[in-house]
Design goal:
The chain is mostly helical and 103 residues long. The chain has one domain. Helix content is 75%, strand content 0%. The protein contains 6 helices and no strands. Helix 4 packs antiparallel against helix 5. The longest helix is centred in the middle third of the chain and has 17 residues. The radius of gyration is 13 Å and the shape is globular. The termini are far apart.
């Protein structure tokens, strides 16, 4: 996990390659989020927020998931990262789709 902060990957795939083993562990993802905040690694924060959001979405905790995806979207906009912006928007649309907010 800490290798993420020494390598500082810039793409979703690069981050996912390092963190995939932790993608279903909310405690590890929160740790990654906090470490990313401490180290000012915005893309690590975005990745963690989206992954935690997916865990919530899969448990039908849609409002919690939506809030995390929106936080991730805001950070990706601030970081001017198109890839993570698109990813976050896609995850937001998945919540709306599952809640049938979009017909």
């Amino acid at each position: 996990m800490d290798s993420l902060l020494t390598v500082v990957p810039k793409t979703h795939k690069e981050i996912d390659d390092v963190l995939k083993p932790y993608s279903n562990d909310s405690t590890s993802l929160r740790y990654i989020q906090e470490r990313s905040i401490t180290n000012k690694y915005v893309l690590g924060q975005v990745y963690a927020l989206n992954q935690i959001g997916s865990l919530y979405r899969d448990q039908a905790l849609y409002q919690e998931a939506l809030a995390l995806y929106q936080d991730a979207l805001q950070l990706s906009v601030e970081a001017n990262n198109i890839e993570f912006r698109v990813y976050s928007l896609n995850m937001i649309s998945s919540v709306y789709s599952r809640t049938e907010a979009i017909k």
